[in-house]
């Protein structure tokens, strides 16, 4: 199996390869050997990313055995975990310079200590443990903000920041607490599917999503227990969708309604006047003019209705994320919206090409 996996990696083809073997067949051992041998052949920035549902299933021991040396293993393999897991496990045992022992850092250490004690003693109060976990998540976010700000103020480039964390005693602790700083430097990266679906916070530069990053360009991605990962991916997608739900038209309405200078404080109006006199191209007046044009041209105050005769009522679905998905009638690939003065609303039409061009009305159509 090792030779088969190595052959697949060396083909440099895009696609999904399925390898189904029964439990106990040595998949982890063989895949670790194949990854190690392929990593030895890599001469560029190509990554090997190993994904599984649970951190405990990551092939760390198998890769250590494959490398035969702890030093070589640590030089080539990076295990990425959630920021929460890294902080809970490491922060109390890492020496931090006095200048970085800020209020945020000290509070985070206290919350981690309370959390670890509660978990170790198996407290029955789950709400208390959850509250501590939430505080650690927020505290970790605040600490990363302080670290990022300090690094940016001290060093100009990403490379300089990384070198400081690698070599300067004042900053080495950052790399120990947040190994994601060195993500780019490793050939083999191990992580859970859940971590892969989230943003990677590297502190020395902007955070990014793995799915949209250069890191996975031409990467070999090994997925353990492929079927089991589907549920994890689905849950992550649903959580992300729910977190990002926003009605942008309604949001515009809310903001637009509050943009009345008469309702602003005197200090706010004074600041606006100073900006107006500064000669700046972007002023409150220009902002209001743009907002007014949008409101008038697109009639944002009106309700919106999809013409129901264009929807296939037999195929309306309620998905796991709580959203409705409608399936349009076949061929309805063009969209336009039109002002309906009689009912004082915006009608949305999904039409075929012929009907779209036949029904277009440049005076009434808002989008089309």
What does this structure look like?
- This is Helicase/UvrB N-terminal domain-containing protein.
- The termini are far apart.
- The chain has helices spanning 2-10, 27-41, 60-67, 70-76, 83-90, 103-120, 126-154, 158-167, 172-177, 193-196, 226-244, 248-258, 266-277, 284-297, 353-359; strands spanning 48-52, 77-79, 188-192, 199-200, 208-209, 220-223, 304-306, 311-318, 324-328, 334-340, 345-351, 365-367.
- Strand 10 and strand 11 form a beta hairpin.
- The strands form 4 sheets. It has a 4-stranded parallel β-sheet with strand order 2-3-1-6. The protein has a 4-stranded mixed β-sheet with strand order 7-11-10-12. A two-stranded antiparallel sheet has the order 4-5.
- It contains 15 helices and 12 strands.
- With 368 residues, it is α/β, with parallel strands linked by helices.
Range of helix content: 40-55%
- Overall number of strands: 12
Quote the beta fraction. Answer: 5-15%
Contiguous helical run count? 15
Distance between the termini: 55 Å
Largest sheet entry: 4 strands, parallel
Q: Tell the overall outline.
A: globular
Protein name: Helicase/UvrB N-terminal domain-containing protein
Key structural traits:
single chain; 368 residues; alpha/beta; four-stranded mixed β-sheet; 12 strands; globular; Helicase/UvrB N-terminal domain-containing protein
Summarize the structure.
The chain has 15 helices and twelve strands. The protein is of the alpha/beta class and 368 residues long. Among the domains are: 248-297, no CATH class; 304-367, no CATH class.
């Amino acid at each position: 199996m090792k030779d088969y996996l190595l052959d697949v990696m060396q083909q440099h083809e895009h696609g999904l390869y399925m390898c189904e073997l029964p439990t106990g067949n040595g998949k982890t051992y063989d895949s670790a050997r194949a990854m190690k041998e392929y990593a030895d052949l890599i001469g560029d920035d190509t990554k090997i990313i190993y994904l599984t549902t649970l951190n405990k299933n990551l092939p760390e021991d198998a890769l250590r055995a494959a490398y035969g040396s702890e030093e070589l293993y640590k030089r080539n393999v990076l295990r990425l975990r959630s920021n929460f897991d890294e902080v809970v496990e490491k922060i109390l045992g890492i020496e931090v310079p006095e200048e970085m022992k800020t209020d945020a850092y000290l509070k985070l250490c206290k919350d981690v200590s309370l959390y670890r004690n509660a978990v170790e003693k198996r407290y029955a109060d789950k709400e208390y443990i959850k509250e501590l976990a939430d505080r650690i998540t927020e505290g970790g976010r605040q600490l990363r903000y302080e670290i990022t700000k300090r690094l940016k103020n001290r060093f100009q480039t990403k490379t300089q920041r990384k070198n400081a964390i690698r070599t300067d005693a004042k900053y080495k602790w950052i790399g120990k607490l947040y190994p994601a700083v060195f993500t780019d430097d490793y050939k083999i990266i191990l992580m859970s599917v859940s971590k892969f679906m989230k943003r990677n916070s590297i502190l020395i530069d902007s955070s990014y999503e793995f799915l949209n990053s250069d890191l996975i360009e031409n990467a070999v991605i090994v997925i353990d227990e492929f079927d089991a990962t589907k549920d994890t991916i689905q849950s992550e997608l649903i959580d992300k969708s729910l977190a990002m739900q926003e009605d942008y038209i309604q949001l515009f309405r809310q903001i637009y309604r509050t943009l009345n200078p008469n309702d602003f404080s005197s200090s706010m109006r004074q600041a606006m006047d100073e900006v107006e006199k500064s000669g700046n191209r972007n002023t409150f007046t220009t902002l209001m003019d743009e907002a007014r044009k949008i409101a008038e041209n697109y009639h944002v105050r009106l309700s919106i209705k999809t013409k129901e005769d264009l929807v296939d009522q037999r195929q309306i679905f309620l998905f796991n994320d709580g959203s409705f998905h409608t399936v349009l009638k076949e061929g309805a690939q063009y969209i336009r919206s039109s002002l309906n003065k009689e009912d004082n609303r915006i009608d949305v039409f999904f039409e075929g090409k012929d009907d779209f061009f036949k029904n277009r009305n440049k005076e009434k159509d808002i989008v089309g």
